Fold:
Amino acid sequence: MKRIFIVGTARSGTTLVQSLLSSHPDVFSLPETHFFAYSIPKNKYLRLFHRPSEKQIEKIRKLLTSMEMDLEFSPNESDRRNLNQWTKYFLNFMDEKTRDKRCKAWIEKTPMHLHYIDLIQKNCPDCYFIHTL
Structure:
């Protein structure tokens, strides 16, 4: 399964790139999830001892629910224990939803996830990044 992250700055064309790629029937895509931006500090040093709080998880849950898709988002305590597990939880979540839709690839487009490429790549060395400028 291919995992694709579209990142960049606001107004750089990330939505256009997502629209083009997600028009293929084998590609699953969601609107911006803000998963990392809502739950992990951008500053790498602040990440050292960070653990997503219930408030942050609820914010992500509400966002996913607002997309009017049948997406159950309920990480357990061990999934939140450290940022690597938290990242893997998200990757597995997206993989599962992609399999449910019988697709071969997924796209996650949140421009601000540009700040989390190091964390994502550490936990998913085979994922792709499209950085729009």
Notes: The first strand starts at residue 2 and ends at 8. The mean pLDDT is 86. Residues 14 and 132 are 6 Å apart (CA to CA).
